[in-house]
């Protein structure tokens, strides 16, 4: 997406952006296209906080807390490998900032149960997870936690998918209600930043690339894994013989090439050839594989290098978290002061 | 209530007891009988934490946060005036211990929305406050917050009224579920300690002495206020003439004398006279007034003395809170470690 021309990279006044991931598994090409690639740009323009949302991940992973713990360092490795620069972006671990839980606690007083139950994102996720009446309270209330994360850093921008816009609206309702209660603007409203390129489909052509659907290509995939995945990429089921005309709609090989191939002219030529017939899937897939191998080889190499010294990665997370905590603690102090909860 | 003979006052092993108040108004005789008097005993036997639950008070006082702030020091003055000794009891301010919010945050994952909605205490309080569907989320979820308060200090005993027993049960459900998740006993189950003498009726004979019903005698009441209140005390509406037999049932003057008069023999004699007739209400009330003036005069004097140096009171709260925070932070660390949320 294009950035406003008025933002200067070095400006101390640059807007705060909050983004992050639930550390429940390795990141994949879907994350790369949907968020990571943008974050590499954002870090030059905005004051970017990237949150490893381990506490939020527990809301539906209390039965596998090890998975969450383990993936914190794995996701951090993915971040660093793709080019997120800890000197430019502040990477933080959510659970290590108690002030985020504190803010959540107070925001729970500013939202009704009925309002949370009406939240379309929460409703959909409750349906997807099959919770029905046995919704953990922490799951129903996670919009308050998300409001805490966003407001703790006074984020003005939050990159989200279209389906997450109601979460930002919920945050802003809490912000407005808090500021009204406080009688002054303590908290900042946030804007959803919806990227132009949305979701990458899975290799099987399913709408979404997702770990749970098993249709991903991970950022740390080996050359063999990439090769095997590309072989499985869904193309045009009607394109049975080389000489037949092929279709581009829903053709994952071409969708991926659109997302990753830098040689737009060459790609346009290949598409035309495919559509008029005479081009086999194997050549398209060969081009896609070359493209993905080129993209992922340096990421994998950096990831392997970084993984040799995980204590260094943890040190980066420790420093980022400490820096982020200062900001969040300042906000929590302001919030508590506005609620009359300052004494000493 | 009688204390178990096996507990030694000086034992480092003595059980932890957690008690406290929502600082929404001055404490009154109902608090004195229902809790304060017991706490003065408990502090010699147990490791007692007394919490000023300002954060919990906000769940239904977001429209008057000043009231909560103001009453923190007022309730602390009441504590010190009745004889709670900060060298023996740890007095703490809830909002100043972020670890309590942190524990609440994680416990929310261990209780379902349906379970919270079934909690009889919560149900009744929602009804009393007329919330209907517009229940603040913080109100529905406050059993998780109460579980945080109790478990943070590893309290084995929690003095509560009969109606609060479901809250302790809810805490213990969370404790068991957490320990099962952790695979070891990190948290401690608590026992409700229901005092033998329960609630003191209001001066108007209503079931409960309560600020909102305007039927209280405050601990800091002046001699004139006590005199005026005793005049209004509800007696026997059928006892119209001095020579008529009087009734003791529901007779607030005698209920108060039962609670406060140390001269049990003299009181028994007066009761007999009243029942057989020939004793006017004015004499009963004179005895009650003398009794209450004797009880409250030294409390009022100590309260006035302490109120001259509120910064000293705040220093006591600061030290108590710091001491309590160390304990709560230790528990929060254990809880987070058990959930795999330790990294550095």
TrEMBL record, chains A, B:
<comment type="similarity">
    <text>Belongs to the class-I aminoacyl-tRNA synthetase family.</text>
</comment>
<dbReference type="InterPro" id="IPR002305">
    <property type="entry name" value="aa-tRNA-synth_Ic"/>
</dbReference>
<keyword id="KW-0648">Protein biosynthesis</keyword>
<protein>
    <recommendedName>
        <fullName>Tryptophan--tRNA ligase</fullName>
        <ecNumber>6.1.1.2</ecNumber>
    </recommendedName>
</protein>
<dbReference type="Pfam" id="PF00579">
    <property type="entry name" value="tRNA-synt_1b"/>
</dbReference>
<dbReference type="InterPro" id="IPR014729">
    <property type="entry name" value="Rossmann-like_a/b/a_fold"/>
</dbReference>
<dbReference type="InterPro" id="IPR001412">
    <property type="entry name" value="aa-tRNA-synth_I_CS"/>
</dbReference>
<dbReference type="GO" id="GO:0006436">
    <property type="term" value="P:tryptophanyl-tRNA aminoacylation"/>
</dbReference>
<keyword id="KW-0547">Nucleotide-binding</keyword>
<dbReference type="GO" id="GO:0005829">
    <property type="term" value="C:cytosol"/>
</dbReference>
<dbReference type="GO" id="GO:0004830">
    <property type="term" value="F:tryptophan-tRNA ligase activity"/>
</dbReference>
<dbReference type="GO" id="GO:0005524">
    <property type="term" value="F:ATP binding"/>
</dbReference>
<keyword id="KW-0030">Aminoacyl-tRNA synthetase</keyword>
<keyword id="KW-0436">Ligase</keyword>
<dbReference type="InterPro" id="IPR050203">
    <property type="entry name" value="Trp-tRNA_synthetase"/>
</dbReference>
<dbReference type="InterPro" id="IPR002306">
    <property type="entry name" value="Trp-tRNA-ligase"/>
</dbReference>
<keyword id="KW-0067">ATP-binding</keyword>
């Amino acid at each position: 997406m294009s950035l406003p021309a008025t933002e200067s990279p070095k400006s101390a006044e640059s807007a705060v952006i909050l983004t992050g991931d639930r550390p429940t598994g390795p990141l994949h090409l879907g994350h790369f296209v949907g968020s990571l690639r943008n974050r590499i740009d954002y870090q030059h323009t905005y004051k970017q906080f990237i949150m490893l949302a381990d506490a939020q991940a527990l809301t539906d992973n209390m039965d596998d807390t090890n998975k969450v713990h383990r993936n914190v360092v794995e996701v951090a490795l993915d971040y660093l490998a793709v080019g997120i620069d800890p000197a430019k972006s502040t990477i933080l671990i959510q659970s290590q900032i108690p002030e985020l839980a504190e803010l959540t606690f107070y925001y729970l007083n500013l939202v009704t149960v009925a309002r949370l139950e009406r939240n379309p994102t929460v409703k959909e996720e409750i349906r997807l997870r099959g919770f029905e009446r046995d919704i953990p309270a922490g799951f129903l209330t996670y919009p308050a936690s998300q409001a805490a994360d966003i407001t703790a850093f006074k984020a003005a921008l939050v990159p989200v998918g279209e389906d997450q816009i109601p979460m930002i609206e919920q945050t802003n309702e809490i912000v407005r209600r808090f500021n009204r209660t406080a009688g002054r603007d303590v908290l900042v409203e946030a804007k959803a930043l919806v990227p132009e390129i949305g979701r990458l489909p899975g290799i099987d052509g399913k709408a979404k690339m997702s770990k749970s659907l098993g249709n991903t290509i991970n950022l740390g995939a080996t050359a063999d894994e990439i090769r095997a995945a590309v072989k499985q990429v869904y193309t045009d089921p009607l394109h049975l013989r080389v000489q037949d005309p092929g279709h581009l709609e829903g053709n994952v090989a071409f969708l991926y090439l659109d997302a990753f191939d830098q040689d737009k002219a060459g790609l346009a030529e290949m598409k035309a050839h495919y559509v008029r017939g005479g081009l086999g899937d194997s050549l398209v897939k060969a081009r896609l594989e070359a493209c993905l191998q080129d993209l992922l080889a340096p990421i994998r190499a950096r990831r392997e290098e970084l993984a040799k010294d995980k204590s260094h990665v943890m040190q980066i997370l420790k420093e980022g978290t400490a820096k982020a905590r200062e900001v969040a603690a300042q906000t929590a102090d302001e919030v508590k002061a506005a609620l009359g909860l300052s004494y000493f």
